[in-house]
Amino acid sequence: MVTTSETTHIITQPKIEESVELSLKRWFKHLCYFPASSRYFSKKDKQAIAEAVQQAELGHVGEIQVVIEGHIPCSQAYRQNTRLRAQQLFAEIGVWDTELNSGVLLYLNLCERTVEIIFDRGISNATTDQVWQKICESIVQQLKQKQYLQAVVMGVQQIGDVMSSFYDKNMPDQNNELGNAPIIIN
């Protein structure tokens, strides 16, 4: 979970200061990665993901944003792992800025085949970390089987289920604060 102060920190601190373990191996892997997200997700697949997000958001005030990134930019890959990158995108895209703090970012990194779920403070008590981790693991299993579209759609549905069980059904929906279409980066 990223709090407002962490989000402010992510936005305002220079990218070079966002550090985790320095990794020349990660940097080289991302440097050599051939951007080919279109190889994994066609226009039809992107539309299917948008429809899955729309369905998963019905009946509650939660907002889901899917970001699929080919690789971390080389200028950041040496000092930034996928978790930090997901937190950065959570802040930059404005997933944290929903009216009821109900945003969830589903981040896929195709180069590393990793999945991160970042959720806002409004749903931090929705469930345990183990449930979020299980969702990530099920997506990764689908990715390993090269079922990319099914992995994302299943993950979106599972996130929607968690949000449906957490939010009161009587709360009025806050419109669509985040777009349903996935954001594809390199």
TrEMBL record:
The source's superkingdom equals Bacteria
Note the InterPro entries from the entry: TPM_dom
Please report the stretch or stretches of sequence annotated as the TPM domain: 39-161
Cross-referenced PANTHER family: BLL7265 PROTEIN, UPF0603 PROTEIN YGCG
Quote the protein name from its UniProt record. TPM domain-containing protein
Record the organism.
Acinetobacter seifertii
